[in-house]
Amino acid sequence: MGHISVIGSCNMDITVEADRRPQAGETVMGSRLIVSPGGKGANQAVAAARLGATVYMIGCVGDDAYGALMKKALEESGVKTDYVETLSGITTGTAHITLAEGDNSIIVIKGANDKVSREMIDKDWDVISSSDLVMLQHEIPMDTIGYIIDRCFEAGVPVMLNPAPYMDIPKDWVRKVTYLTPNEHEAALMFDGMDRDEILISEAGKVIMTVGKDGVVYGEAGKVVKVAGFTVPVVDTTGAGDTFNGAFATARCEGLAIKEAIRFANAAAALSVGKIGAQGGMPWRKEVEEMLSCRK
To answer: Which of 61, 281, 36, 127 has its CA nearest to residue 71?
Structure first.
């Protein structure tokens, strides 16, 4: 039986809510603390596993309480954690989020995520090389990402790269990956000097571009195809993009055509914004199938 390997970040999101941000040297009282599992790698692994894929997470956590919580959360969603390494003497990656005055500010500590190395990829190559798809994002070292892309390309293993948070990447990566899933802003930076349609048509079937509430666009047979999103009440958009990526990967590995895979992923992403938290709102397979059957 095939599987998806997600190689990426495992974070704990530590969110505080307050009426306003403190000035330098000032203390203010907050109203709520939320500690929840996150990280783009772990998020995408959870999304795919909840939707029925067999998913192996490959990454690092620290030997601390957050690392134990992270692995427990992954396992509860059905993600296999055999290849999540617990490292001594280093903290699990964290995102420290302040919600105040209608906006958020975030400090990210990479922690153990910065230790996902070439050596780790070599050690775990058996599970990576037998994958139906390898999923990558930009929250582990870029050198490691390039190494994975090169090895997978040489071995004929399909790769999906979600280029977020945005960083400049070698043009060679675009050629070697099977799917590239930027949002409109990331695509404009990545393909400097090209407009949206030029990007999609020149990279037909490879670039799957999310365009917010308008849905998703991609190129096919010399034209741009748009797949509309679903209109739903929004509680929290955190993790919606990661849900889309995990769902799209699952659908493609099951053999759905690109357009149908995008529609499936749009439904999953729409469901994810109805609850608080990146992973907390991620839907299970039955929920997505129910939405699709109701909105044909």
So the answer is: 61
> Considering the entire predicted model, what is its pTM?
0.93
Q: Give yes or no: 242 in active site.
A: yes
- List pLDDT tens digits, range 236-293: 777 889 999 999 999 999 999 999 999 999 999 999 988 877 788 899 999 999 998 8
Under-50 pLDDT residues of the chain: none
- pLDDT of 1 reads 53
d(CA 275, CA 181): 24
SS (H, E, C) 244-280: HHHHHHHHHHCCCCHHHHHHHHHHHHHHHCCCCCCCC
pLDDT value for 187:
94
Catalytic residue among 13, 64, 132, 242, which? 242
